[in-house]
Amino acid sequence: MSLSYLGFHAVFLCPPILVLGWLTYRRVGLSQTRRRWRRRVGTGLAIIVALAVVYTTPWTNLLIPRGVWWYGEGVVRGTIWHTPLEEYLFFVLQPILTALVLVLVGFRLSASDRSSRVELRLPRRHRIAGATAGLAVTVVGWALLGPGSTETYYLGALLLWAGPILALQWAVGATYLWANRRLVALAIGLPTLYLWLADRIALERGLWHISETHTTGYALAGLPLEEALFFLVTNAFVVQGIVLYAWVVERADELPSLVDLRRMGRRSSWLAQKVQREREPEPEPELEPEPNPDADLTDAP
Predict the structure, then answer these.
(1) Which of 62, 100, 151, 196 has its CB surrounded by the most CB atoms within 10 Å?
(2) Any idea where the domains of the chain sit in the sequence?
């Protein structure tokens, strides 16, 4: 039985998302005490999904025309630019899957957690170290894209693409991520292992093909190294992004700039409401009826 890319989503992504969503609902519920926490995770996920689509689209549309990977005949229903519609859908479904795993493995943010007490005012050396590590990934990717390095093209393009995001996340909160390293590692590792399995099945069934010319030839459990690294990196983007977003929002009062920004938001909202009220026309006053002298004469005896 042949499987399309949309069928791949129906088999490997949608069912676990539905199951994990149900388990998340059972565990978290709709209690008012967790309402703010749910909103932060949901907002962080929405931001991650939007960034995934915006940031990944140019990258895939650069690599597909170069023949780094291609799709089997009749597997996709259509494309936007060079990327299949189903690939864009994957940009949305993968973060949702990974975010649900993050919640289920125990992600919480409360004052009782020691890790949540990590201040936003991290030592400068911590931020420099995080940014340097991410930029080092970028430099390695750039070097692998040098002249005559055809077999490292996919790996180099992946590292060059991933490095700036990792540098930003690690510069913002490498210390906090390290304080939550077990949670972060588990939330990244579980969906990564699952997607490795799903991707290997898709490759074996011919849904897509990875170029031997543009890859190193190294494999991990039968999966090309570059593919395995892609899922590892993208899941790291999602987990680190949501964890850091919730942490920054939770401790925003520590940074005057964030406090001022939040106050500006409240003031602008108040000003908009005031302007709207001023634009509304004032109701015309009701006029009292003038006395009729003829009516008085008629009523006289």
Answers:
(1) 100
(2) 5-263
Q: Each residue of 133-162: b (16+ CB within 10 Å) or e?
A: ebbebbeebeebeeeeeebbbbbbbbbbbb
Record the pTM.
0.81
- Cβ–Cβ < 8 Å for 263, 187: no
**Do residues 227 and 199 make contact, with C-beta atoms less than 8 angstroms apart?**
yes
Measured N-to-C along each axis, helices 225-250 and 181-204 cross at an angle, to the nearest 10 degrees, of 150
Among candidates 172, 166, 179, which has minimal Cα distance to 236? 166
- Tens digits of per-residue pLDDT, 150-194? 899 999 999 999 999 999 999 999 999 999 999 999 999 999 999
C-alpha angle 143-137-147 in degrees, rounded to nearest 5: 10
Q: Identify the CA nearest to 87 among candidates 124, 43, 56.
A: 56
Say what the pLDDT of residue 266 is. Answer: 55
Radius of gyration, alpha carbons of the chain: 28
Please report the pLDDT score of residue 229 as a whole number: 97
Distance CA(181)–CA(190), nearest Å, equals 14
Q: Does residue 193 contact residue 232 with C-beta atoms inside 8 Å?
A: no
Query: Which residues are CB-contacts of 242 (< 8 A; sequence separation ≥ 6)?
Result: 41, 44, 45, 48, 99, 102, 107
